[in-house]
Amino acid sequence: MSFSSLECLIDEKQPVYTLAQALCEAQRCLFCFDPPCVKACPTEIDIPKFISKIASKNIIGAAQSILSANILGHSCAKVCPVEVLCAKACVYHDRGELPIEIGRLQFFATSQAIEKFLAPDLLGAAKARTGKKIALIGAGPASVAAGAMLALNGHQAVIFDKKNFIGGLNSAGIAPYKLKHEEALREIRWLSSLGLEFCLGKEIAEEAHALEQDYDALFMGIGLGEDKRLMISGADGPSVYGACSLIEKIKTQKNFSLGNIKRAHIIGGGNTALDLAQELRLLGVDYVALHYRRDEPDMSGYAHELSAARKLGVHVWLNSEISKIIHEDAELKGFYTQEGQLVESDLLALAIGQSHVVKISKYFSSISYDARGLIQVDPKTHRTLNPKIWAAGDCVNGGKEVVNAVAEAKIAVKSMLAYLAEV
Questions:
Q1: What range does the domain containing 259 cover?
Q2: Is residue 232 part of a domain?
Q3: How many C-alpha atoms does 20 have within 13 Å on its Cβ side?
Q4: What is the chain's mean pLDDT, rounded?
Q5: Does residue 233 sit within a domain?
Q6: Where a domain ends, among 83, 117, 151?
Q7: Going by C-beta distance under 8 Å and a sequence separation of 6 or more, which residues neighbour residue 378?
Q8: Helix (H), strand (E) at residue 281
């Protein structure tokens, strides 16, 4: 059962394949010699290889192929936008046919493996302990992936997070119809059998100097900051949420309720806005609308997500900006558009981005930031200017996919292993 009762009300968009379904889909693959799907995968999973293993009923072997390239291959199978990555590159598009369901095949294989084997049994036992300790700041996908890879190589990986749950974006920020909170936790608990350690509910600011002194290396996977707010009247009133904050409440707070919400409006045109819009419709909100300040081609959200939202009945208001939010008797009544139109609303969510990394340079020495407030790293190693500190994920790339965080963690870990072998 999911951690959140409200999240339980939402069914998964793509249930896991049965064996018969997986075999049927796997046998469609053409097993290309120079597969474009592999080139489109940030972690370079050998997709034809794992699909051929499924086709021959070697399901565990398929999972091993996946996880050797992407240690978070289980959750990535659900949360990756395959429509713009591997599946988009599938050669079946050239034939006017549906692409291979790569994500669903990947989830089928990894689900079978995680259910039957502990991580060391599937990935190989960790190397002998080296006595080296690495502190990883933030318990999201980048840190979990890096920590698991470091643990496999015999290092002690300790992951710190200020929140009281593990998983970061994977467990708190993914729409429930894609990945449930408990499924994300299940993957991390499985990886924890490699020897990962977690220190939760802990602000690291006061201990930053001690961490630098006590650990052989540090990894920053701290994600992004809080939801951005609109600087207009009423923006801080009741029933006005940051979109990421609202998704997190739906996924992780047992007693959270939307109440008697009939009309919900979301400001923004990105993937977070589209995810939340679909989520609210699936939770039974009668009227859900997106307000985007430009034309549809300018929206940063994926076209397939916009299409899915519209199919669920989400309304899209283009060239729409709001100027003032109205509350009466501590209740949200609605808002005015720039044209002066009063729009009634019971809930307003702001999906206009997240603040970039809170400056931690005063806590950790020699970390620099770019003009956007993101941690600067050498792209070939993901090492910061501090020779003991590496960084990856949203705090570096500004907010990409989970698979990008894993790909960057792989680069960082390769560099970290070389460094740790010398110190």
A1: 240-350
A2: no
A3: 0
A4: 94
A5: no
A6: 117
A7: none
A8: helix 271-282
Angle at Cα 2 formed by Cα 202 and Cα 354, nearest 5°?
Answer: 50
CA terminus-to-terminus distance, the chain: 45
Residue with the two structure tokens 């801080």: 236
Please report the pLDDT score of residue 206 as a whole number: 75
At 342-371, the pLDDT tens digits run 999 999 999 999 987 666 656 888 889 898
346 within a domain of the structure (yes/no): yes
Mean pLDDT of 323-352: 95
Whether the Cβ atoms of residue 292 and residue 268 lie closer than 8 Å to each other: yes
Please answer whether residues 366 and 274 qualify as being in contact, where contact means their C-beta atoms are separated by less than 8 angstroms.
Answer: no
Residues 336 and 264 in one domain: yes
Model pLDDT, residue 174? 95
Which residues are registered as beta bridge partners of 289? 265, 315
Q: Which of 106-110, 134-138, 198-202 has the lowest mean pLDDT?
A: 198-202
Contacting residues for 291 by C-beta, under 8 A, at least 6 apart? 265, 266, 267, 268, 317, 320, 321, 322, 337
**CA gap 390, 211 in Å, rounded:** 14
Query: 267-280, pLDDT tens digit by residue?
Result: 999 999 999 999 99
The CATH number that applies at residue 94 is: 1.10.1060.10
Of 55-69, 79-93, 300-314, 367-381, the range with the lowest mean pLDDT is 367-381
Cα separation, 308 vs 303, whole angstroms: 9
Distance (Å, rounded) from C-alpha 378 to C-alpha 383?
Answer: 5
Task: Give the count of domains, the chain.
Answer: 3
Domain match, 359 and 219 both = yes
